[in-house]
TrEMBL record:
The keyword Iron does not apply. Keywords: Methyltransferase, S-adenosyl-L-methionine, Transferase. One of its GO terms (biological process) is methylation. PANTHER family: ADENINE NUCLEOTIDE TRANSLOCASE LYSINE N-METHYLTRANSFERASE, METHYLTRANSFERASE DOMAIN-CONTAINING PROTEIN. It comes from Oceanodroma tethys (Wedge-rumped storm-petrel). It comes from the Eukaryota. This is F173A methyltransferase. GO terms for molecular function: protein-lysine N-methyltransferase activity. InterPro entries: FAM173A/B, SAM-dependent_MTases_sf. GO terms for cellular component: mitochondrion. Belongs to the ANT/ATPSC lysine N-methyltransferase family.
Amino acid sequence: VPYQPSGPRQVANALALLRGRAGKTVDLGSGDGRLVVEAYKQGLRPAVGYELNPWLLCLSNYRAWKAGYRGKVSFLKKDLWKVNLSDCYNVIVFLAPSVKPPLAAKLLAELPDEARVVAGRFPFPSWTPTSTLGQGLEQVWAYDMKEVRRAAQR
């Protein structure tokens, strides 16, 4: 998936849909780390980014250091398909549409009912969002796993 940095409005919209939530927050394909750093800043802890690109991991760690969060947020070089997400309650996904169908199956299989998934740029095609915020390129969609599972059983 090509790297495309999130704009300030996209970041704000994504985190607005996670406001007031607790539990582990992860960004799958965390890029330059801006969403993870902002999540931590807003009280979502622990905050973890998974990214394969070593240059983006360096940039993420620099961004965390510059914000004063070195050692408080984590950026891990791990393949999102191989990470166990069963302890994640807030999942941020700014990935290409082609990745969404297989990722939807992984999230359904692994996430707890209380989890919320926030997708940026492209929605999950087979899921109905619980809420959405913004328009155009800044739009984000939130999906509560309990609702997604209930709809899938119908």
